[in-house]
Amino acid sequence: MRISVIGATGMVGSRLVTEATTRGHHVIAAARTPRPSTAAGIVSVAVDANEPQTLTPLFDGVDAVFLAVRPGAGREHTLAALTTTVLDAARTAGAPVVVIGGAGPLASPNAPGLRVVDDPAYVPAQWRTIAAASLAQLRACRDHPGVAWTYLSPPALLEPGERTGRYRRGTTTLLTDADGTSRISAEDLAVAAVDELERPGTDRHFTVAQAPA
Predict the structure, then answer these.
(1) What does the radius of gyration of the chain's CA atoms come to, in whole angstroms?
(2) DSSP-derived 3-state class of residue 156
(3) Bridge partners of 183?
């Protein structure tokens, strides 16, 4: 499979590149400031995902696209528009897109009708802006019914860690452990994302979390 990864130098994007190439896929690793790579199966490309014309080479002949971009502090408001630009390009090319989003749009397990973005148990004040941006990002996806998009929400805590190759899959409610924690390693999130490309599910929006030991 030929896959474009937009945001290939980020915490999740870099692990998507590793996971996909380890499985034998060919990857176009796209980022604003790409990291040169001599590894087999990886082509590094400079791209500004806010500029439609720079996206054209990323969609030419690809089987799928990962969008794994997280704007820096103060630029969270750009995420929905950037996602729209990527989805517009995908619609023209006919390429499916897996968006690695945020936990904010998920339903909180703490109360009916409460979203994670509004639950301080999972989204402290300093994370609320990016969590709200992920909600706008999902809305941008839903505004593109003609695109084969899938939105993957991570659990509340996503950080580098061990690749176990195991995870739990849910739909639109945050998954938690018995003690209430909600987490997964970036490595296992990448496993789940590449699994979604290889064996697509039926859910447009789903989540994953660490599997029990």
Answers:
(1) 16
(2) coil
(3) 157
Say if residues 99 and 150 touch (Cβ distance below 8 Å): yes
Query: CA 106 to CA 181: how far, in whole Å?
Result: 15
**47-53 long-range contacts, CB within 8 A, separation 24+:** 47/6, 49/6, 49/7, 49/82, 49/85, 49/86, 50/78, 50/81, 50/82, 50/85, 51/85, 52/85, 52/88, 52/89
Tallying the residues shown for the chain, one arrives at: 213
- Compute the distance between CA of residue 204 and CA of residue 200 in angstroms, rounded to an integer: 10
Angstrom distance (rounded) from CA 97 to CA 91: 9
E-strand ranges in the chain read 2-6, 26-31, 42-46, 64-67, 97-100, 149-153, 157-159, 167-170, 183-185, 205-210
What distance in Å separates the CA atoms of residue 12 and residue 159, rounded to the nearest whole number? 9
In sequence order, what DSSP letters do the residues of 120-155 get, joined into one string?
TTTS-GGGHHHHHHHHHHHHHHHT-TTS-EEEEE--
pTM of the model: 0.95
Query: Tokens 């909180």 correspond to what residue?
Result: 108
3-class SS at 180? coil
| Residue predicted with more confidence, 102 or 38 | 102
Distance CA 190, CA 193 (A): 5
pLDDT one-digit tens code per residue, 36-92: 877 778 999 998 888 888 888 788 889 999 999 998 888 999 999 999 999 999 888
Question: Residues near 191 by Cβ (< 8 Å), separated by ≥ 6?
Answer: 19, 163, 165, 167
